[in-house]
Amino acid sequence: MTSPRRALILIDVQQQYFGGPLEIQYPPHQESLPTIARAVDAATAAGIPIAVIQHSAGVGAPAFAPGTPEFDLHPEIERRKTAAWKPVVKQYGSVYAGTDLATWLREHDVDTVTLVGYMTNNCVLASAVEAELLGFSTEVLSDATGAISLANDAGFADAKTVHTTLLTLLNSNWAAVADTAAWIEALDSRQALTRSDLGSSAVAGSQLVPQA
Question: How many C-beta atoms lie closer than 10 Å to residue 114's C-beta?
């Protein structure tokens, strides 16, 4: 098996997610942000490409409005940013939609993208799914991402349920999910992360369902 040719993708680590109704709740950002920074430092030391993504809803929008403090990257990311990083501003959930990120990744001979940042229930999910069509393998770091609680006409799910359910879903088909420590170990050894598949996940799931 060939070694993965990785890039680290920092999704929307913007001030918008550190207060207000979109504040990341699980894992709490007080835990996930230092872990994201740890992944950045490991990627920098390994010399793998880094792309930094910011979401824009347009000037004057109630959230993610360019020119507002909430649009800015968190200082822990901003101070690590270098001229070598690929900056991307997106308007959709997926980091690939309407951007040149896929082209940049191919120019850098990347075949595996590692996703960290926010939110698991929106941009991480959308990006992992679209990567399948684009031909990129995806890794998601469970402790360097985060979700919020959700409620609407379809129901309610607390942030922990949202996060853990979506990571289980992603690991069943679209991504290899691991914590940052395991990813750094795989990065150092130039190995791929282990992942499940839909069939194995279905069998294991069926064995955990209580029998009537």
Answer: 30
